[in-house]
Design goal:
The chain has 269 residues and is α/β, with parallel strands linked by helices. It has a single domain, classed as 3-Layer(aba) Sandwich (Rossmann fold), CATH 3.40.50.1580. The chain is 25% helix and 27% strand. It is built from 5 helices and 11 strands; from the N terminus they run E-E-E-E-H-E-E-E-H-E-E-H-E-H-E-H. Strands 1, 2, 3, 4, 5, 6, 7, 8, 9, 10 and 11 form an 11-stranded mixed beta sheet that branches. The chain is globular, with a radius of gyration of 17 Å. It starts with a strand and ends in a 26-residue tail after the last helix. The protein binds hypoxanthine. The site of hypoxanthine has 14 residues, from strand 5, strand 10 and strand 11.
Amino acid sequence: MTKIGIIGGTGVYDLMTLSGVSDEDVKTDYGTVKLQMGIYKGIQIAFLPRHGEKHDVPPHRVNYRGNISALKKVGVERIIATGAVGSLNLEMRPGEFILPDQFIDFTKNRVQTFFEDGAKGFVHVDMTNPYCLETRKIIIDAAKSLEMPVKTRGTYVCTEGPRFETPAEIKMYSHIGGDLVGMTTVPEVILARETEICYASIAMVTNFAAGISPTPLTHAEVLEAMRQNNENLKTLIIKAVELVPDERNCDCQNALEELGSLGQGKYLS
Ligand code: HPA
């Protein structure tokens, strides 16, 4: 049966009433990562608060490689992530959930691969559909069954942070096709694909982006918007977890086919 990883973004530091919860320190090539392991309706879940339980890890310091390695090591096959985002698109309003289907990368100082120096092979992982199509559909079906509105596409512009953007940057991101701006989807979504884990993200719009919003942005307003929608977000995740099929029926599991026996994260120790 599939083991599901949940990566909680800003405002999501615990998940739900899991039974048999235990903390597990997972040793990876990139340091030790603490996961909360638990069971929901017989489904095994590994929960990871991306910014730490006390929100003390900013987006540019997240141990993305450690986190994805740890989830892979405990056998996670599918990740549902959450993230707070600003909106560049007047049709994506604060309070709404969006399932990004594309990203544009403006990060600057993050290692984006497990194949950094060629020693484990050369990998140019396909990003035609960066977010797992099957996992996105599961979340869409979950939202439908809850009668919860979600927007089913959106281009996520990922910035380095931790500062918010200038209005000039937002104008440019909008011109090149961005709908949302956030600081975390890259390299998380890329590393998940490199380990052949399915990955989809639920973006929660907390504000209109700089220059669109009539007021300067604050982290407090992001937190408050997340707090207001937190329960809905958890309800959506739980429903999606319930709908996950036992077997995967998408291409993510074969993303590294060209590596042969080194696929499936076997290059990680
Ligand atoms: N910009 C970048 N990241 C964000 C924003 C924003 O406006 N809101 C929430 N996360």
